[in-house]
């Protein structure tokens, strides 16, 4: 199982929706709160090239945000990505 990392804020509805999808699949993830630690927002922007949350990685693959995560799920591509080792 690939490690999953999310950069989020606690007040973002898209962050909550992305975590809800992962929770429903029983996927554990590392949740980095960029509101609590501004240096993590800088880290996220350097890694993703984006300033919006959530930003989601599965392993070294940058998935993008909540919409992209749900699109992978709808296309049946999220489970294979998570399982890819």
**Termini gap:** 7 Å
Mean pLDDT: 96
Supply the CATH architecture: 3-Layer(aba) Sandwich
Question: What sequence of helices (H) and strands (E) makes up the elements?
Answer: EHEHEEHH
* Principal-axes shape call: globular
* Approximate strand percentage: 15-25%
CATH class: Alpha Beta
Assembly state (oligomeric): single chain
Q: Return the structural class.
A: alpha+beta
Percent of residues in helices: 40-55%
* Number of H/I helices: 4
Notes on the structure:
This protein has a single domain (4-83), classed as 3-Layer(aba) Sandwich (Glutaredoxin). Helix content is 45%, strand content 20%. The chain has helices spanning 13-24, 38-48, 66-74, 78-83; strands at 4-8, 30-33, 55-58, 61-64. Helix 1 (13-24) packs parallel to helix 3. It is globular and about 35 Å long.
How are the SSEs ordered, and which strands pair?
Layout: E1 4-8, H1 13-24, E2 30-33, H2 38-48, E3 55-58, E4 61-64, H3 66-74, H4 78-83
Offer a concise description of the structure.
The protein has 85 residues and is an alpha+beta fold. The protein has one domain (4-83): Glutaredoxin (3-Layer(aba) Sandwich), CATH 3.40.30.
Keywords summarizing the entry:
85 residues, four-stranded mixed sheet, 20% strand, single chain, alpha+beta
């Amino acid at each position: 199982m690939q490690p999953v990392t999310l950069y989020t804020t606690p007040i973002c509805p898209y962050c909550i929706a992305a975590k809800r999808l992962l929770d429903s699949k029983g996927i554990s993830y590392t949740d980095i709160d960029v509101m609590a630690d501004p240096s993590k927002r800088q880290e996220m922007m350097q890694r993703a090239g984006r300033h919006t949350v959530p930003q989601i990685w599965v392993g070294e693959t940058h998935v993008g945000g909540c919409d992209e995560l749900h699109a992978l799920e709808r296309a049946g591509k999220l489970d294979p990505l998570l399982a890819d080792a």
